Write the structure tokens for this entry.
Amino acid sequence: MDIFAPLLQYLISGLTNGAIYALIALGFGIIYNATTIINFAQGEMVMLGAMAAISFYHLHPSLPLAFAAGMGVVTVVGVVFERLALRPVKDPSPITLIIITVGGAVFIKGAAMMLWGKDAYPLPPFTGNVPIYLGTATVLPQNLWVMGLTAALVLALEAFFRLTLAGKAMRACAYNNRAARLMGISAGRMVQLSFGLAAALGAGAGILIAPLTLGVYDMGLMLGLKGFSAAIIGGLGSLLGGVLGGLVLGVAESLATGFISSGYRDAVAFLLLLLVLFLRPQGLMGGGK
Amino acid sequence: MGDALGEGFIRRLFNRWTLFAAMAALVAVVLENNYYLSLLNFIGIHAILVVGLNLLMGYGGQISLGHAAFFGLGAYTSGILTASYGVNPWLALIAGLIVCGIAAFLIGVPALKLHGYYLAMATLGFGIIVYIVLNEALPWTGGPSGLSGIPSLSLGGLKLDTPWRLYFLIWLTVWAILLISANLVDSRTGRALRALHDSEAAARSLGVDTARLKLQVFIWSALYASLAGSLYAHTLNFVAPASFGFMFSIKLVTMVVLGGMASIWGSLLGAAVLTVLPELLAVFHDYETIVFGAILMVVMIFLPRGLVRGILDLRELRKYKREGVR
């Protein structure tokens, strides 16, 4: 019993973090599907979401408003980033694009440091801090918010891809870019849309996690990397895979923290990533290259 | 004709290399200021790292975002073996090379078989793991506060413990590394590498074993980093994890990009500029992150061939335009 008592607790925190990783992974997947680019600045969108929402909340203490405004601002940043930094590239080889998106990530992080300083800021939990007891484990309302809103966002995304014209056009581009263009779909517009969507999802993840971890200018790198690991573990470009990868990664990390050592927590994600690259490079769900 | 061409080539090469060596020696004779000499030593160490990374980036068309980790592995292998176990520094240096070679092999084999982005992410992840281990493995590494008491290198009874003496060792190494790299680039392997950079499919169709070549150049660049790390540990006599974090990896990539990808001498320039700049501008430190990010984006978008060649290209373009040549 001693070993299993904390298991539920680990599972809860693992699934919470996993939901966040899943949202970030989806952002990687959406951009990858539209452009075959891995956007290394994705993690910084998460940070920007959290920081922007915190600032908006200070201006006007309404959480729904801060959430919407944060996501909105970051969506614009995502679209502008694509327009200014990626569109003008004349020779879009992978290494050029990696360097530019890494440069973008570092630039955004540096700008955030100048804007907000190096302090960590809190965002109040969405509905209080009274824990709910589940047997031996406790759940914070924020944990439920994270899992619930992530599920809602994933469903909304799925609906967007299945039911709307723009969503279907994006899927067509991912499936066969040239054929999609011949059908009159503007590939450029789809790329823009994908950057906006990915940024919005990342920002959402940042705002959801901020009440649990605080918001700080350098939170993006780690979250972005773990989101990427989740995307690879699940299979890059697969929606279901991204979600699954996020949850697997979150739980694995939480179990390792609980049973092994908290110092090596962040190493778990990358060991898992390297392991997947070794054994099953196409990911759990993927048919990637 | 072939002979004459070969002779001319050798003469040109010979001149350039002797000139560089003579200039380096002259600097050592003229400069007596220890501060400047140490600064030059750090430029040299960075240059070794940057040349290695440039082989991978400029010629291999791959990128390592965790190069600081190989630098750190070399430095810590040297540091731990000499400070804690009293191993001969030169043997420790070789041990560092072996450790880094194996690590690069293990990461490179799975990552390089895949899409161009995987090596970037795998090395980034590896860099963070190494950084965490350096911080957490207290009994060996001394944790965040670092590892001190690393002895200096010695050569035939002469202890290399002043900036002036180290200057000779470091710049002789830089000279050798540049020479080796320039020869590598002009060799059959180098031509294969450039073919690989331009088009992997075309290179493969001409019989280049691309996977093997990419792995080789990745390991090669990790070995340079390890060598630089060992030199760093024995120069400073102290190592701490903070020197081997993600930002240092980014700094190295920025040096490569600024100096110009696929340019051996550009690497030297990139290393020099970004080592001296923070020293000149004390305020630079606060803006380091944003400046590196800006350099990476702006140079890659507008001057993808690096600062020097990029500006020359632009001037040439303007000249053509002015003369009305289309």
User: Anything to note?
Assistant: Chain A has eleven helices and two strands. Chain A has a mean pLDDT of 89. The two ends of chain A are 44 Å apart (CA to CA). Residues 7-35 of chain A form the longest helix (29 residues).
